[in-house]
Amino acid sequence: MKTEIGILGAGCWGIALANHLHNKGIKTTIWEISPERAKRLRDKRKLSALPWLTIPADIEITSKISAAIKPITLMAVPSQFFRTTLEKIRQSSPQPEWIISATKGLEKDTGQTMSQLIQSVLKISSRRIATLSGPSHAEEVSRHQPTAVIIASQNSGLARQLQKYFHNDNFRVYTNSDILGVELGGALKNVYAIAAGICLGLKIGDNALAALLTRAIAEMRLLGKKMNCKDTTFLGLSGVGDLIVTCFSRYSRNRLLGQKIGQGKSVQQALAEIPTVCEGYPTTRAAYQLKNRLNIAMPILDEVYSVLYCHQPPEKSIDNLMKRQPKKEFQ
Q1: Residue 190 above 50 pLDDT?
Q2: Which of 37, 119, 153, 240 is the most exposed place for a label (fewest CB within 10 A)?
């Protein structure tokens, strides 16, 4: 039987992945929640954010979620809409056999990762769940530029099967069993990309940016250790790799958010000027609450939270970090 994958979410990432799978000969159906937008995509076969890409005519686009739920279903909706989309899946028929999260974030109110949300809402085994993560801007994937990602699952057989579906000469796929570590890396890098953008906006130099990213990795590893993740996960594509691309790429919305704040704009002004979702904004609150529950020190995260949610001037946050008590690099 020919492989078919349903993709929930018709943003840049969902459409880039649908186009990638189409080029591998895999039939895809995309779900867009808005009937008007779904019709426009069907008619024009264009997405304004990816103007160079023409969506192939045999990729189906629907606003009926039941038509897009396939035995393999991939979710590419923003984290704040993840739970409501899962509720729609739960109420639909048929149900997916395997479900993949391609969303990087934490749920704002619970701090849950997307795979944890899938388990809790759909009441399914973790062995039916995978996540796709790593340094992979949709703008470059849609242009078939070289990219390396991770498919993570506690089910090694599922990870290997999905690896075959997604892997090609332009899109290299590694597998990993540490799904929680992969998801934490993919979520937290958005927080630290905001911090990197603030540094760029303040024009405080390359030394500061290098120090920030290095200590950000230390914070990610600390949280991962507390949550029983593999330390090596944070040194791989979903940790260091995704952090690098999100902090340095011109496509990074989270970096742009921080940059605007560093240049003197209010948080709300900066958010209003960015037309698409900045996952780092809600993830910062969720990660801050999570680290408080776990009682661990993550000073960079603390300062990003203070800037975004407590109206703290970014210059004050840099000052706070630099005036912390001297300590050993590795504890």
Answers
A1: yes
A2: 37
